[in-house]
Give the backbone structure.
Amino acid sequence: MRIHFQSLRSEKDGPAGLVLGCLLIGLLGLAAGLGFNSLRSSPLPLIPPFLLASPYPEAGPDQAQEWAEEGRVLFLDSRPHAQYKKAHLPQAVSLPVKDFPALYPVLSPLFPAEGWIVIYGEGGGWPTERELAHLFRKAGMERVKVLAGGFRAWKERGFRVEGR
Amino acid sequence: MNQGRPDSWRRRILHFLKSPYLAALLRIILGALFLEASWDKILHPARFAEDVANYAILPPLLVNLWALVLPWLEMIAGLSLILGLLSRSSALVLSALLVSFIIGISINIARGAEIDCGCFGAGEELGWISLFRDLLFLAMGIQILFCDRGFLGLDSLWRKRGVEKEG
């Protein structure tokens, strides 16, 4: 089937008209999206606050492994539960960000009295570990570190993982 | 005489596929589908932002902006298609969006990610069906882009008025 590019240029609706139309739709979409959001009772922030917060202290996979051998760490998996079920760090507990309000009071007795809570995410894409660390910081928990490089770095280092 | 010959059938099918009347029908179907797709995302932007984030493609700084603006682009372009107003620009916008969806879905199928599609509201897992559906929608968008002549649309009404005034 041959495509006739001239069909893009009919009557008054030439390529310039087509592009102008696209720009108009784009601008209307931008204005409506931002305008409607600002009218909501709880607007979605354009940039999530945890992305603007000061960096969270990190622990490398070797350091985290050392703490795990000494039993001085609790690993928290911030990824969606389906990813946790596939594979996770040894004895890690699943705590997806959206479940934080419900699970934090239940999990708090598990937090080690001495040692660290190490939060990890996938190590690419959306930084769920930073989002969860931000919630812990807001809840007043100080003994929290983020696993540098996330689950991917741990796996690449050749350390043991659990899962199905 | 050559009505039964295969090349005659091919010509007829091509003629049908390039028909402006088919373009008008597809405009209404595609427009309605995008109106339906946009509605839930507009009502629940936080949930849609989560779906966008799960695709793990956009930089985190752009996720919420995309989640806020995309549904409105779908809504405005869908409505324009139904009304036949700026219909080919709307088809181009929707086709560009569909290309971005197809890339995002393909990458996540290749990754083996078990995430929500986020296509028509919550609860649909991303998979091959989502990909084939978007490819079909893209074919519809391209047909409209190249073959629409404003039949049953406001574009042609305004054009006619313009011609009458000039006359």
